[in-house]
Design brief:
The protein has 2 domains: about 190 residues, Alpha-Beta Complex (2-enoyl-CoA Hydratase, Chain A, domain 1); about 50 residues, Lyase 2-enoyl-coa Hydratase, Chain  A, domain 2, CATH 1.10.12.10. Helices cover about 50% and strands about 15% of the residues. Helix 9 packs antiparallel against helix 10. The chain is globular. The model has no long low-confidence stretch (mean pLDDT about 100). The protein binds acetoacetyl-coenzyme A. Acetoacetyl-coenzyme A binds next to helix 2, strand 6 and helix 4. Keywords: Lyase.
């Protein structure tokens, strides 16, 4: 499929979705959100893709939702706009394939919300993170009040959202907002290396692990452990479980098939 604001590539088992609307620092308007949604569908349905990376072209990851598109919305239109962002980010979060945000620059507002919907965040040392919304007269609307507190704790989330402070990559690392910080020119290598490491494991087990982690974060621990037990059980219906354990016993590397 052809995209106007997205570059979608594949490198072996790794999909790379890069947002490319550089004249607006990759700001998310309705068209960009719709293209991200379609690109994520392509990645989900592509059987060769095990893991995908989300990044931005140019000097921004994403500088937020598009302020020009939002400025004259009424409440009903704004709720629809928020729903569009929430839906596509939830699709990334809930799909079984792991995602890595390679944060190359500004990740503000909707940009930080997009990065937080990914499973893992790797930041360039130039990356900047923040939720500037209350300075524009709005609340975060693409999941920021929900996901930021889960990642950094409620007090830090309130501080960042109420003050709109923009923080650098090292501070983001120190509060648990990103997994890793690397030199800007190493960002994609590092993201690819982590993606390849994940892509070489047993994919049913990787995907069930993601489902179990996500679901158990949202339910009580008894329910979470029930989900974990059932997914653990499902692994034993896969060829990769047989291969993984046989390879251990035979002292060789496993040859996983992804089923
Ligand atoms: N929406 C629309 N356009 C944007 C944009 C955004 N979020 N962010 C940047 N742009 C545009 C600028 O208007 C500018 O366009 P022109 O060249 O046509 O004037 C272009 O991108 C380059 O930006 P700047 O000239 O401002 O670049 P800079 O280096 O001086 O500043 C910046 C960079 C600090 C990121 C600044 O652009 C900025 O503050 N952007 C807005 C950040 C923001 O407030 N994001 C949150 C949006 S609200 C939101 O996301 C709500 C939600 O949760 C759903």
């Amino acid at each position: 499929m052809d995209y106007k604001n997205i570059i979608l590539k594949k490198d072996g088992a790794i999909g790379i979705l890069s947002i490319n609307r550089q004249n607006a620092l990759n700001a998310l308007n309705t068209e960009v959100l719709s293209e991200i949604s379609k690109a994520v569908d392509e990645l989900i349905h592509d059987e060769e893709v095990n893991v995908f990376i989300v990044t931005g072209e140019g000097r921004a990851f994403v500088a937020g939702a598009d302020i020009l598109e939002m400025k004259d919305l009424n409440s009903a239109q704004a709720r629809r706009f928020a729903q569009a962002g929430l839906d596509v980010f939830r699709k990334i979060e809930l799909c079984e394939k792991p995602s890595i945000a390679a944060v190359n620059g500004y990740a503000l507002g909707g940009g930080l919300e997009l990065a937080m919907a990914c499973d893992i965040r790797i930041a360039s040392n130039y990356a900047k993170f923040g939720q500037p919304e209350v300075g524009l007269g709005i609340t975060p609307g693409f999941g920021g009040t929900n996901r930021l507190q889960r990642l950094v704790g409620i007090a830090k989330a309130k501080e960042l959202i109420f003050t709109t402070d923009v923080i650098g990559a090292e501070e983001a690392l120190s509060i648990g907002l990103v997994n890793k910080v690397v030199e800007a020119d190493k960002l994609m290598d590092e993201a690819m290396s982590m993606a390849n490491k994940i892509a070489q494991k047993a994919q049913p087990a990787v995907r069930y692990s993601k489902v179990s982690i996500n679901r158990s974060a949202e339910v009580d621990i008894e329910t979470g452990m029930e989900i974990e037990k059932n997914l653990f059980g499902l692994c034993f219906a896969t060829e990769d479980q047989k291969e993984g354990m046989r390879a251990f016993v035979e002292k060789r590397n496993p040859q996983f098939k992804g089923k």
